[in-house]
Structure to design on (461 residues):
């Protein structure tokens, strides 16, 4: 059990650590993706703002005027016309998307014709793409926003402004590195805490294991495992274990009494039979053959009772065949011609039950034998249908069973009159067998009104 507890702790620790690791990796990945997306959106917005700022200056002036372009180190800007001819570019910008950029044309004389009074405008559509730019010999990745504008003279220009991706990538990388550095210590803390918590939680299990080992070694079923104060699964396990030990102790004690009583009951007929045979061997004329036969019959009946009880204790289930109780009663009572008192058959309702006919015949026979043993002048049997139950009643006009003994008589080897000779009655197993069989058939057997025995069985639907 100790190895089991250690294994449980190890598995719980490994499982908790793995779950936390997966959760952190998933959460971290989602956080990085969201952060990268937000930073990318911010970069797109910066590029768009830079492009629109130049486009607004064009819309309020001329594409050939001073556009006051931003520093290329921060926001590289390229202005072209509809045909792709370069109109303006920052001095430090050397290439865009791998293409070299020459000097911007001298626009001092351009647009010298007659100026028209025209209202410039900036296109609402913005196109954002990935690209690269080389500034002062350094090449980097950018997000470029492209905006079209028209100046007051009606000339059109295309403004392409970029925003660097390096700050966003640096922020994401810094966060990723911080998460990678912090993940192992955090998982170590989770593993240690889980190990300590599971060890504390499983400590009562170790106590249960130790007590069970002591019970096994000492064979003392009267001992019980400690029950923790907490009303959790381990507490329920301890209580269930104690209930199992109590049931096992009761069963073992019952078996011990059964073996002792059976040995005592078998000793008498065996001793009597041996004595008679020894006398017959020495003096054949003195052999009591009827007595020997009677002792042999008693021994045979007792052995049969003990074997049936052993099968019932082993959990033998009755057969599932339909049995008509009324027909069973008529058949069995008609065969009891040697009874001391004739059996009166009363009401016989038609009722079928499910079970073993042989065992139910045994129950009826035991009840009739018990009634014959105590009746004065009458023994009566009947079968009555009461709802979903079939009730078989056997009663006699004897003194009846005292209320205090109406459960005790169903115990094994119990005789209410302990002083009477064993030859006057059975071994005290008949009623115990009858109740066991009734319970195996899903029914019950009890005594009411003194000497009325009721066998209740569910009716076959």
């Amino acid at each position: 059990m100790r190895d089991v507890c250690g294994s449980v702790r190890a598995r719980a620790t490994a499982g908790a650590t793995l779950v936390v690791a997966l959760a952190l990796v998933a959460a971290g990945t989602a956080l990085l993706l969201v952060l990268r997306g937000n930073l990318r959106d911010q970069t797109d917005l910066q590029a768009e703002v830079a492009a629109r700022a130049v486009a607004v200056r064009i819309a309020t002036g001329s594409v050939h005027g001073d556009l006051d372009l931003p520093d290329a180190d921060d926001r590289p800007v390229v202005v072209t016309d509809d045909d792709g001819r370069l109109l303006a570019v920052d001095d430090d910008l050397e290439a865009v998307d791998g293409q070299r950029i020459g000097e911007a044309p001298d626009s001092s004389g351009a647009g010298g014709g007659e100026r028209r009074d025209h209202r410039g405008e900036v296109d609402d559509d913005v196109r954002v793409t990935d690209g690269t730019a080389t500034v002062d010999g350094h090449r980097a990745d950018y997000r470029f926003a492209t905006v079209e504008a028209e100046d007051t003279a009606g000339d059109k220009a295309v403004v392409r402004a970029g925003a660097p991706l390096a700050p966003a990538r640096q922020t994401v990388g810094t966060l990723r590195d911080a998460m990678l550095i912090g993940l192992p210590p955090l998982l170590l803390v989770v593993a240690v805490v889980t190990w300590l918590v599971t060890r504390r939680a499983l400590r009562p299990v170790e106590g249960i294991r130790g007590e069970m080992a002591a019970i096994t070694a000492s064979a003392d079923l009267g001992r019980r495992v400690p029950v923790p104060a907490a009303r959790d699964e381990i507490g329920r396990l301890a209580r269930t274990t104690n209930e199992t030990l109590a049931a096992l102790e009761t069963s073992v004690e019952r078996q011990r009494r059964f073996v002792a009583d059976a040995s005592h009951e078998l000793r008498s007929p065996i001793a009597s039979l041996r004595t008679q045979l020894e006398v017959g061997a020495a003096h054949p004329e003195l052999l009591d053959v009827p007595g020997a036969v009677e002792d042999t019959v008693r021994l045979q009946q007792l052995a049969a009772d003990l074997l049936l009880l052993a099968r019932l204790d082993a959990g033998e289930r009755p057969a599932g065949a339909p049995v008509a109780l009324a027909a069973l009663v008529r058949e069995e009572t008609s065969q009891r011609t040697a009874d001391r008192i004739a059996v009166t058959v009363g009401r016989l309702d038609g009722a079928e039950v499910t079970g073993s006919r042989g065992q139910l015949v045994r129950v009826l026979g035991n009840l009739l034998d018990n009634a014959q043993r105590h009746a004065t002048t009458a023994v009566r049997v009947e079968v009555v249908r009461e709802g979903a139950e079939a009730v078989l009643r056997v009663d006699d006009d004897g003194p009846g069973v005292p209320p205090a003994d109406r459960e005790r008589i169903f115990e094994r080897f119990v005789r209410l009159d302990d002083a009477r000779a064993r030859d006057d009655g059975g071994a005290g197993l008949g009623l115990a067998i009858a109740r066991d069989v009734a319970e195996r058939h899903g029914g019950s057997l009890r005594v009411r009104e003194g000497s009325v025995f009721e066998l209740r069985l569910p009716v076959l639907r």
